[in-house]
Amino acid sequence: MEPGKASVQGKKSVLDIAAIRAAASKYDDGAVTDGYKGNRAEILAMLNEALATEIVCMLRYRRHYYTAKGIDNVSIKAEFLEHANDEEEHANTIAERIVQLNGEPDLDPVHLAEKSIADYDESTDIREMIKANLVAERLAIEAYRQMIERIGDTDPTTTLMLTEVLTKEEEHAEDMRDLLG
Predict the structure, then answer these.
(1) Integer CA distances (angstroms), 102 to 28, 29, 171, 180, in order
(2) Per-residue pLDDT band at 1 (split at 50, 70, 90)
(3) Measured in whole angstroms, how far is the alpha carbon of residue 129 from the centre of its chain?
(4) In whole angstroms, what is the distance from residue 27 CA to residue 6 CA?
(5) Are 115 and 52 in contact (CB under 8 A)?
(6) Contact 37, 100 (CB under 8 A)
(7) Continuous segment of H or E residues that includes residue 111
């Protein structure tokens, strides 16, 4: 067997298993291994901004769900509730990734309002609600595109997660546009 090579259940490996095992023994870092290439501080800051945005969007959609009135708006209310639930799921996923990167999800209500790129909206007109949601979705789409570009392949797990969230935000934008149609 070549120096530095270890066997995996009796088979030779092209990987340096001994080095991988030694690095893996640093269990205090959780999922962040020596091979992690991302700028953790910057990625955590971006993820906390994304977390704040998702929470503000969830709250805006919920407010619109509860305050939209009229028999003609029942299907629109249902769409708002569905989107609120999706935004909450995004927030949970992002918070979990922050923790995986040994960060702290910032859930301070004051900070959420400051860090969110989307605005909360108190419209009472259904059309204005839809427009506010569409604008917020478009803001999120562009923010996620920029995050994905900035992170690139330095953190493939975060990039994949953000790409999945981006896909859902694009669907939300299309839904809001269709409602305006």
Answers:
(1) 9, 7, 31, 42
(2) very low
(3) 23
(4) 21
(5) yes
(6) no
(7) helix 109-115
